[in-house]
Amino acid sequence: MGSCSIVILVYWLSAQLFVWLGFARTSDNHKNASMASKSRCARHAGIAEALLGWYDRHRRDLPWRAPPGARADPYRVWLSEIMLQQTTVATVKPYFEAFLSRFPSVIHLSQASGDEVLGKWAGLGYYSRARHLHACAKIVAEQFAGKFPETEAVLLNLPGIGPYTAAAISAIAFGHHATAVDGNIARVVARLGAIKTPLPAAKTSIKAEASQLVPHDRPGDFTQAMMDLGAIICSPKNPSCAICPLQNFCLGHASGDPGALPRRAPRQERPVRYGAIFLVQRKDGAVLVRTRPPKGLLGGMTEFPGTAWETQFDAGEAMKHAPVEANYRKLDKVISHSFTHFTLRLEIFVAEIPAGQCAPENCRFVPRRSLGKEAFPTVMRKVFEAVRQSDAREQDSAHPLNALSAKQARK
Ligand code: SF4
Fold first, then answer.
1. pLDDT (tens digit, 9 = 90+) per residue, 29-77?
2. 241, 248, 249, 255, best to mutate for ligand 1 pocket (most atoms within 8 Å of CB)
3. Residue closest by Cα to atom 1 of ligand 1
4. pTM of this prediction?
């Protein structure tokens, strides 16, 4: 064999070896991918199984929940989900019970007046929810014969129902395979998968991961189990990993600092708005109030007359907006209240005027015994409390604001 033939033979053998090694590596890659996919599915199934087992033993007993094995009432599920938006379970419970006893079905709610619904909602905050709730009840009563639609797509068309609420109702009340992701569930999912992308950018990947976790049987129980785990065990600051049924699956726990998840993009500071409120009472005890415009912030709620709430506020100009001429006394305390997009600081001016004086345009006098029936938002209840605490008022047992209990004023 000549030297040229030897070179060709070596080259050919090298090429064969290269092809064989490449094939072997490709084959290994396929095998690894397949194994990863299989183990991923097993992981999701394992999480669902462990969580449902824990839920069966430790589920919270909540007034809107059906007993184990029973079908949930869509009206209760819907009502509770709307009330629980931005609001804690402890706060919602008494409101839910009172609402249900006054409006036992969606038909009863649809037939109530807007004022009565707002009155029952007063103190729960985020009052646009009450208006949407009422509008939604009317549509369900009139267009769906009092039966809630089952699918997310149809539910999403109803007032006040967003993607989370639609998925929660569809899963919990009707057993559909829907993925509900609220703040609690997002936190648990981000920790389970050690998702490091900060919120809100991580929302899409959290939803995708959450939808893989939802089992096809018992999706409603799984959703409620995630809510319970987030509320009881996987709490925002100090997750109780030692007693968590998902500890063995949790990459966040394995990372050593699950409390740091989910990460959040830095929040912008809330702007501050300022205004003045005029609490005017007649000598016969009636108090001057007005109703806010039906749409917008605190739409349709009752308030004391006052200035607009603005970032630029000249306290010296406030008296130009007083609803009646009177000798006003300014309270030392300034009320502070946080809305979603701004913080409000209110100065309070109090005055007493003669009995029988008529109310100015767009205002009305409410007898003190009827104040408790008015749909006052929380910020106005804070005004009550500030006035109640003023020394001069505390001396006066006949003060009209005593018509409201201290408990009501704290809400
Ligand atoms: S192990 Fe810890 S971080 Fe992970 S889900 Fe459970 S409580 Fe949350």
1. 333 334 334 444 899 999 999 999 999 999 999 999 999 888 899 999 9
2. 241
3. 247
4. 0.71
Atom of ligand 1 nearest to the CA of 250: 4
Rounded-to-integer distance, Cα 337 and Cα 30, Å: 59
Domains along the chain with CATH numbers: 74-260 (1.10.340.30), 272-410 (3.90.79.10)
Average confidence (pLDDT) over 362-390: 89
Distance set, CA 69 to CA 65, 218, 220, 226, 229 (Å) = 11, 10, 11, 18, 20
Does the CB atom of residue 185 touch ligand 1 within 6 A?
no
Q: Whose CA is nearest to atom 2 of ligand 1?
A: 241
Q: Are 401 and 384 in contact (CB under 8 A)?
A: yes
pLDDT category at 309 given cuts 50, 70, 90 is very high
DSSP 53-81: HHHHHH----TTSPPTTSPPPHHHHHHHH
Ligand 1 lined by 230 (C-beta under 6 Å):
no
Residues annotated catalytic, as ranges: 81
Query: Does ligand 1 have an atom closer than 6 angstroms to the CB of 192?
Result: yes
For 321-344, write each residue's pLDDT tens digit: 999 999 999 998 999 999 989 999
Kindly tell me the burial class for residue 408, based on how many C-beta atoms sit within 10 Å of its own C-beta (0-12, 13-18, 19 or more): middle
231 CA to middle of ligand 1, Å? 12
- Whether 300 lines ligand 1, by a CB cut-off of 6 Å, is no
DSSP readout, 241-298? GGG-TTGGG-HHHHHT-GGG-S-BPPPPPPPEEEEEEEEEEETTS-EEEEE--SSSTT
